[in-house]
Specification:
mainly alpha, 0% strand, elongated
């Protein structure tokens, strides 16, 4: 049974909670969140800002440090 099948078979309140959580987790990042994530990954704020100006138009949901 796939995760989608399990979700479909779940009671309505479980489906609602799962979908609300997925909406929250996959909401696009705000420009300030993107900037903070880039800075945490080692980029200076002055270098991050021009990148944020480009990325803010894309539905970015996560930024990693690039390390496994």
């Amino acid at each position: 049974m796939t995760a989608l099948d399990k979700l479909r078979a779940a009671p309505p309140e479980v489906r609602e909670a799962a979908l609300a959580l997925m909406d929250e987790l996959t909401a696009p990042m705000h420009p300030r969140q993107i900037e903070k994530a880039l800075c945490r990954a080692g980029m200076s704020r002055s270098k991050a800002r021009p990148i944020v100006n480009v990325l803010k138009h894309l539905p970015i949901v996560a930024i990693g440090a690039g390390k496994p």
